[in-house]
């Protein structure tokens, strides 16, 4: 009252109050928001004249305004619920924020307008929307981008408001606004505003508009604009490689959501069937896109097939699946288009989830007993994608997508038709998940472990035929779903190593552990090896259990003999096992078959040119020396051959390892010559020329009782 008497207008006071609140909620800078919130609190406390001040302070306190998304999407809606602030908040967003230079602020502002629409639907429909439609075809790029996004968000919000009162959106929005909404695409197309830098903003904005107008059930069926929208979507998928890397993912997401909504609303006839002509054209087009030379076009085409509604894939399921399957198989073999394989694997699950499950249905329309094995085969083979390039293990993207797809499909089938899930399919899936849960990359180990536990403990529906389910439930009680941190090697490996005691899981678990134990990350190597050694200590005196474990290890070795990803870590792991005498029970028998087979496999690797692999072989040879019989002479022979290897570093490594071996196992040679052997190993310059080195090596052969190798002409990677 005193201020009014002094000449200050109540409108000025109201304006200042609203400006303070707007700054507290919408300013881009967190410090400004917090300062405005504190100033508003001070005014409420001292003057007490701000309407609903205490309630607003509770929602917009110092800490709440720290999160900008919370400010735009929640706090602003609460404040706008008080009539004194509603229009000023909406007007500020329209005038200041949808044309902001920061695209993140523009997008938040449009989402805020969506949430604010129920507070003032008539004002939005009659005043705000016409303003935005004018800005949507204006010259300013940022303003045009924000206005198009806002038009879609407000229209969809008005549709929701209309549903609550049993009306259609056409009863709220004027015919002029509807025509203007429909015409935005044509105006931009005629002006060629989908090209260049601006196209990176306009295309996802129009795709968002298409999605929202489709969800709002605008009466555009059979209208030429639908063809225009579809052409824009298809052209964007083909042109994804032309946009900057920062925009590509946003554009792909916008295009796929727009296509899904467009198909759902406008490509379905009165009998709820797909328009046959459009269905054939779209599916053929996207299948052709899977063969494109551009990886992003393949990605977009794969995701487009995955987002099609169920009625669009009906009677075309086999064709779509074969296209995705062929693209995955060929690109995996060639080691390229990894991102496209990832998206194709995602789409395989999406397509079949849209199609549904019927045990005795047609394989061209649903997931059934005839095609389920083939579908799972594609996903399980994707779990063996270990493609690497300059970015690292990019195959992990495909494996992660495959694990997610397996989970989604398995839960759907277990719920609707568990009888078509055969024991072999479930066994293969669970074993592959166990392998991934034992591997070295924390993120993907956690993803696999969480899915493994989810499938194991899922009650509705129960996944049938899980091997050793009772034993698994004792290893992983239900509380491990929340308490076990798979990202932490110290927690994960002590659980996963227990699967080595279950015959069905032993091969895959040991395969995964081999990569972890023989890896290079210190924490992963330490905890995985400790967990493995705990298991081995429990069985090292049980001949049958240890033999079974050794045979499994040999099987992995044979299967991956020329696969460096597994072979090198496995050699390092085997070296650690031998050094810790876990196979001591076998050393009492002469020429034990396990040692003989390890020796045969390591001899194959001796021809390699990979220094890391050769060093690992030397370590294993030195560990195998503890076995008795003729096999010991053969091991010594291999080590002595490596003393004349063409690579000096291998000769030096072999001499050092042999010196340590002789210190550890003093029964290898005659004590009378032991000192001479060790002196020769330590004093010889093994990196000198081969002629000199060969003389010393032959002397060692004589002292150790091993026949001298006969020099013959060999390739550069072999020895004499």
From TrEMBL:
Pfam family of the protein (one): ARM_TBCD_2nd
Positions of the Tubulin-folding cofactor D C-terminal domain: 428-612
Domain Tubulin-folding cofactor D ARM repeats: 18-54
Keyword annotations from UniProtKB, A to Z: Chaperone
InterPro entries: ARM-like (IPR011989), ARM-type_fold (IPR016024), ARM_TBCD_2nd (IPR058033), TBCD (IPR033162), TBCD_C (IPR022577)
Protein origin, superkingdom: Eukaryota
Family under the similarity heading: Belongs to the TBCD family.
Protein name (Swiss-Prot/TrEMBL): Tubulin-specific chaperone D
Organism of this sequence: Ataeniobius toweri
